[in-house]
Design a protein that fits this description.
Elements lengths: L8 E6 L2 H13 L3 E5 L6 H8 L3 E7 L3 H13 L4 E5 L4 H9 L4 E2 L1
Parallel strand pairs: 1-2, 1-3, 3-4, 4-5
Length: 106
């Protein structure tokens, strides 16, 4: 289909270095451009603005109130949709993360 070859500008932040490398590799294999990677979770908002990121993939590790507070801050500051990479199986936690404004979660 014409017009579907758009390469997304992706910002990737993850609290775990091994996961960061894996996510970066997948995004690049899919043909997208990683504009920032390995950034601290608190840097996502400002970097989403300065890099022109079209989407931010943010891995938060464990669930809990601290992670939910981070989601709130990231979504408030980000200049692009935020997809949360959650290491959580609790449906109520995932629902709460969605209520805080994540665009999607994996």
């Amino acid at each position: 289909m014409p017009g579907t070859d758009h390469r997304l500008q992706v910002l990737i932040a993850n609290e775990h270095d091994d996961r960061l490398k894996s996510i970066t590799a997948v995004v690049e294999v899919l043909g997208h451009e990683v504009v920032a990677s390995g950034v601290g979770i608190g840097d996502v908002g400002p970097l989403s603005q300065s890099t022109g990121a079209e989407v931010a993939l943010v891995g938060l590790g464990l669930d809990g109130q601290h992670a939910l507070d981070q989601i709130t801050a990231i979504v408030r500051e980000a200049a692009c949709p935020v997809i949360a990479l959650l290491d959580a199986k609790d449906p109520s936690y995932v629902h709460e993360a969605a209520k805080r404004g994540v665009f999607a979660y994996v």
